Amino acid sequence: MTWKEEERLSTDREIEMASFLNIFRRWRRRRTERQFLRCLESEAAEEFLKLLLRLMSLAFKIDKDFRRNISGFTGRYQFRSVDSSVTIAALFTGKDLKVREDLIPDAHVSVIFRNARSLMNYLLATDRDILKLVLNNEVMIKGNGSYMLKFGYMANHLQLALTGKLP
Fold first, then answer.
1. Which residue in 133, 96, 101 sits closest to 115, CA to CA?
2. 24 in Cβ contact with 94 (< 8 Å)
3. pTM (2 decimals)?
4. Which of 18, 27, 34, 45 is the one with CA 20 to 30 A from 2?
């Protein structure tokens, strides 16, 4: 093998190695971008749920008609995603609503969403049909499912009141 052939072979190996490294870098960049977007998605879903629950809490304090929805009602809701990137607890005490950003051990109903997108789909839906999400494997409910029907009613009522479409 001549000196030129060895040099060309070495250059070919360097090109192959550089090509492999570029493929690896692109894969790693795409993977990091996807992880970042999932993180943003879950944080946005968590913040939106907290906002909805805080608006609901404010409505209970201001609107006596809306407050009748929880008069004497005590319920502990746990909303979370499968990977626990979203964890919000809603505690109805009969007079008001408290929102916590952690897991509670003795929830009456735990609603486990497949991912943050499933949670946002539920929160932004106009009908909030939790049974449809259960059938589509978007959500899993542990505990008393009728609590979710009550929550859906209150959330829809609040949404209609805020948009001025309440009869």
1. 133
2. no
3. 0.73
4. 18
User: What is the phi/psi pair of residue 126, to 5°?
Assistant: -80, -25
Strand order in the sheet with 97-100: 97-100, 87-93, 74-81, 109-113, 139-143
Exposure letters 55-67 (e unless 16+ CB within 10 A, then b)? ebbebbeeeeebe
- Structure confidence by residue, pLDDT tens digits, 114-160: 988 888 888 877 777 788 888 888 899 999 988 988 888 888 888 88
Tokens (6 digits) for 9:
């072979």
Six-digit token string for 56: 């609901």
The residue type found at 99 is V
Q: Assess if residue 159 is contained within a domain.
A: yes
Domain that holds residue 121: 40-163
Asked whether residue 150 is domain-assigned, the answer is yes
Cα separation, 108 vs 142, whole angstroms:
8
Q: How many domains does the chain fold into?
A: 1
